[in-house]
Design brief:
Helix content is about 70%, strand content about 0%. It is mainly alpha-helical and about 240 residues long. Helix 3 (about 70-90) packs across helix 4 (about 95-115). The longest helix is centred in the last third of the chain and has 40 residues, at about 165-205.
Length: about 240
């Protein structure tokens, strides 16, 4: 039986009888039939539930005349992402703000969750950053086709038709490498941050790890910003008017 966080154990005790047969129906054999839900998935589920509650509260309290602190906070975050998108993508960047905002909130919550005792950062497990990277990859590719239609494929052929046989494999490898780059960057930084924080908390009195907790928060914010920034840059390459 794997080591489970208390929330993971709760989910497994409630849903293992449903999840295990469902996975087997998909020809996925869970390693532990009594504990098919992993810690990383449980943390993702927790973040999903938390964000859903926050969005419901935000939607129920939206006001033009008397906006609350929660609305002000989200409007500020939305403004940051929208301004960055306008600078990188251009005036037609507004339709992409919702995806970028959702991506930023999920990654930020996942990065910071490890600071709460008895929880861990799901982004410190490779499969979660990989899922975020694959989602970003398919999103900007889809938007490229939506923006330019079949002409988007010309993006992979380079500026000169004569170089297409050389450029196509290079571009394909380059785009696939973006998934690997996004995954490793986020996973490596969050894993290292979690390990450093855990080591100093276990070795030193409670007052001394505070600088490392602040460093963890800074790394969490920075990695969220970098992930969203790179996704925005990839979007710009896919939907730029030159294509």
């Amino acid at each position: 039986m794997p080591e489970q966080l208390w929330f993971t154990h709760l989910l497994n005790s409630l849903f293992a009888g449903v999840v295990t047969p469902f996975l087997r129906l998909l020809h996925i054999q869970p390693k532990y039939a009594d504990a098919p839900i992993s810690n990383s998935f449980a943390m993702e589920f927790l973040i999903f539930g938390f964000l859903l509650i926050v969005f419901v509260l935000l939607r129920s309290r939206l006001s033009v005349d008397n906006p609350g602190s929660l609305q002000h906070t989200f409007e500020w975050l939305e403004g940051l992402i929208q301004d960055q998108s306008n600078e990188i993508i251009g005036h037609h960047s507004e339709p992409y703000t919702a995806f970028l905002m959702t991506l930023a909130l999920f990654i930020l919550c996942a990065n910071l969750l490890g600071l709460i005792p008895s929880f861990e950062s799901p982004t410190a497990v490779p499969i979660v950053p990989l899922g975020c990277a694959i989602g970003a990859f398919f999103y900007y590719q889809t938007q490229g086709f939506k923006h330019a239609g079949i002409k988007y494929l010309a993006h992979f052929a380079g500026p000169m038709p004569a170089l297409a046989p050389l450029m196509v494999p290079i571009e394909l490898i380059s785009h696939l490498a973006r998934v690997l780059s996004l995954t490793i960057r986020l996973f490596a930084n969050m894993y290292a941050g979690d390990m450093v924080t855990l080591v100093f908390i276990s070795l030193l009195p409670i007052a001394f790890p505070i600088p490392f907790l602040i460093l963890h928060i800074f790394v969490s914010l920075l990695q969220t910003y970098i992930f969203v920034l790179l996704t925005t840059v990839y979007l710009q390459g896919a939907v730029s008017e030159g294509h």
